[in-house]
Write a structure and sequence with these properties.
- The chain is mainly alpha-helical.
- Helices cover 71% and strands 5% of the residues.
- The protein is built from 20 helices and four strands.
- It has a four-stranded antiparallel sheet with strand order 2-1-3-4.
- Strand 1 and strand 2 form a beta hairpin.
- The N and C termini lie far apart (73 Å).
- Bound molecules: tryptophan.
- Tryptophan binds next to helix 3, helix 4, helix 12 and helix 16.
- The site of tryptophan has 16 residues, from helix 3, helix 4, helix 12 and helix 16.
């Protein structure tokens, strides 16, 4: 008689004694394959076969062990209908407020051209390889990031502590969504402002005053934040194919076309050469340790890396789709949109004598001036903010999805209940973020409000740290065979380059930037005097 134990994600959930003599791994494999559903197979990390007389000694002492081929796993949450949909969903996740709201103002705060070059380097050398790593980990595990990490650690025979990486992602997701939803709320508000015509022939002062009036009013912010969070929860609750896939299919291409129109206007009427030289003429004397960290953080934020969003989207990717090609396409689109946003905004900034370091209000103040003066600006402007809202929406969905998937897996809740609960949590945190602009504006720690801290802790600390760990896991803990299989690459130059980037370049790059910032910080505190 033989005892069989399967270790699933939450300990063993199949434990039985059978008559059949399973003598080899293959026989055991056939036995389980016939007996278990695809969903159960996906949940099983390892199975152990022992003699019945052997002590049931946890995971030790067995005749032989095995696991199902990772390629046979399926997600219980669903799958994209094609690789193209994954591309749209991942691009929908990547392209968002990070490109249109954050990239221009962070570029402005960090001096322009040199920052842009460092940013592009971060995307190419660190962002793209890590995005491939995150996607391949997701597809191999086919579960929420926490459970995927646990499963793959089990597959590869490494410490199960790796699943804490998934936990950090959950915390980061809540923090990001809290401030993200508030800013997305501004975008919703601006649909109505611009559409109502208040910006016709507006001045710099009037446009800035309108923005301040919005952020001063906690109740109005709360209304827009609530509306946006409900929109996000509604799509998530409808599921992967029924909700997310439908949402991204039409809206992404439309956003791109509108952005081109606004850029066209900015080129025709604004200070385009000023903008080009600001964005592309590097002045490296402006570069500090902090601006390098800002560039790295922006790369992670803009590509949605480091917290499991791309991992969960990867877990819905069909098995035969090529990860390297799709990921490169997503990263290129994301970067093009960010640069286009810069080319739309800086000509207006310079033409109207605004300061490039205008902070989080930059996009809202500058673009409304442009819309106020262009023919048909009322309609174009409203449409632009509709699309900015949509871009933010498809991103917010991806921030919430890993958390919701985990809630479903671990609690057995319906998708609906999990979505509402997670959304409620993020909504409460978001109240702290929106109060940072009015009632709590004075509450600062080291000069940062609650909003600033959420943004800083996630983009500059948790996302790079998460990316670092993902790179180490994919580069050093997973076997060459696993990653090669998942990437669909043979052992050639492309694979070697990727492996070198995740093993060496990405970890050292992230660590060096962290250490540098820490040293500067301590020096400023006077520790080295
Ligand atoms: N990338 C999105 C943007 O640029 C924001 C985003 C979506 C994100 N999912 C994420 C950021 C996951 C970090 C992690 O607006």
């Amino acid at each position: 008689m033989i005892a069989v134990q399967c270790f699933g994600l939450n300990g063993d959930f199949l434990n039985e004694t059978i008559e059949a003599g399973l003598a080899t791994t293959e026989e055991a494999f056939m036995y389980f394959n016939g007996r278990l559903s695809a969903v159960d197979r996906a949940r099983i990390a390892v199975w152990l076969v022992r003699e019945n007389s052997m002590p049931q000694n946890g995971r030790r002492g067995y005749l032989f062990r095995g696991s199902f081929m990772a390629g046979a796993r399926q997600s219980i949450h669903g799958q994209w209908s094609s690789r193209w949909v994954f591309f749209l969903a991942a691009t929908g996740s990547a392209v968002g407020l990070g490109n249109i709201w954050r990239f221009p103002y962070v570029t402005g705060e960090n001096g322009g051209g040199a920052f842009v070059i460092i940013y592009l380097l971060c995307v190419a050398a660190v962002g793209i390889p890590i995005m491939m790593a995150e996607t391949l980990i997701g597809r191999r595990g086919r579960q929420s990031p926490i459970n995927t990490m646990r499963l793959l650690a089990e597959d590869e025979g490494v410490s199960s502590k790796w699943h804490y990486l998934g936990w950090m992602g959950v915390v980061a997701g809540f923090l990001i969504l809290s401030f993200y939803s508030v800013v997305a709320g501004w975008s919703v508000a601006y649909i109505f402002y611009v559409g109502s015509g208040v910006f016709a022939q507006t001045t710099v002062e009037a446009s800035a005053a309108q923005f301040t009036a919005l952020t001063d009013s906690a109740w109005e912010l709360l209304g827009w934040h609530t509306l946006f969070m409900i929109m996000t929860v509604v799509v998530i609750a409808r599921g992967v194919q029924g909700g997310i896939e439908q949402a991204v299919k039409w809206l992404m291409p439309a956003l791109f076309v509108l952005l081109l129109i606004v850029v066209g206007y900015a080129i025709a009427t604004g200070d385009f050469s000023g903008a080009i030289s600001y964005l592309f003429k590097p002045d490296f004397s402006e570069v500090t340790a902090n601006s390098v960290l800002a560039a790295l953080g922006q790369a992670f934020f803009s590509l949605s890396l480091g917290m499991g969003a791309i991992m969960i989207y990867g877990s819905y990717l069909p098995a035969d789709a090529s990860i390297p090609r799709t990921v490169v396409a997503v990263a290129v689109c994301d970067t093009v949109v960010a640069l286009l946003a810069g080319l739309a905004i800086f000509p207006i900034v310079f033409a109207f004598g605004l300061e490039p370091n205008g902070g989080p209000g930059l996009v809202f103040v500058t673009l409304t001036i442009a819309f106020g003066h262009m023919p048909g600006g009322q309609i174009f402007g409203a449409l632009f903010f509709v699309l900015l809202t949509v871009a933010a929406w498809t991103s917010a969905i991806s921030i919430l999805e890993p958390i919701v998937a985990w809630l479903i897996e671990s609690s057995g809740w319906s998708r609906r209940r999990a979505s509402v609960s997670a959304g409620l949590g993020a909504w409460v945190l978001g109240i702290g973020a929106l109060l940072s602009f009015n009632y709590w504006a004075e509450f600062t720690l080291l000069g940062k409000t609650f909003f600033d801290w959420c943004e800083f802790l996630t983009t500059s600390v948790m996302l790079p740290a998460g990316g670092l760990l993902i790179a180490i896991f994919a580069g050093w803990r997973m076997s060459r065979a696993s990653t090669m299989e998942e990437l669909g690459l043979s052992d050639g130059a492309i694979y070697s380059t990727w492996r070198f980037l995740v093993q060496v370049v990405a970890p050292i790059g992230v660590l060096a930037i962290f250490v540098n910032v820490l040293v500067v910080f301590l020096r400023d505190l006077g520790v080295f005097d």
